Amino acid sequence: MPNEHPIDILQRMPLEPIEYCRRWVPSIEGKGYRKTCINALAEVTGLSPSTIKDWGANFERRPKYVPRLLRQADLLNQFKQLVASGRVATPSKFLQD
Fold first, then answer.
1. Which helix (H) or strand (E) element contains residue 2?
2. Hey, which of 23, 40, 56, 83 would disulfide with 60, CB 3.0 to 4.6 Å?
3. Smallest Cα–Cα separation from 22: which of 76, 64, 59?
4. pLDDT tens across 31-48, in order?
5. What is the tens place of the pLDDT at every residue in 2-14?
6. Domain boundaries along the sequence of the chain
């Protein structure tokens, strides 16, 4: 598509579960990282942690829709960071609701 906005292109790019965790789950010493990652994926997808555990060691058996959903969550997380840093302002009405 001519003159397509880079965000539109990025939003169509899949983000695998393992990559989502690398970006948004803090690295923890010890055995708790996988559990923390699974819980983060459960929160984003709305699925249960036990369902996500069944996706395999590197989440290779995840449903086809998950990478697109994770990309949307990734973009939203990036936007939240921009708002928190003050680089993007939100209308004060939204903050009052």
1. none
2. 56
3. 59
4. 689 999 999 999 999 999
5. 688 778 777 788 9
6. 6-96
pTM of the model: 0.80
CA angle (38 as vertex; 83, 52 as ends), nearest 5: 120
Confirm if 28 and 36 have CB atoms less than 8 A apart.
yes
Distance CA 36, CA 64 (A): 22
Give the N- to C-terminal CA distance of the chain in Å, as an integer: 37
Distance CA 28, CA 32 (A): 7
17 in Cβ contact with 69 (< 8 Å): no
Per-position DSSP letters for 25-78, written without gaps between them: S---SSTHHHHHHHHHHHHHH---HHHHHTT-TTSTT--TTHHHHHHHHHHHHH
Tokens of 42: 């459960």
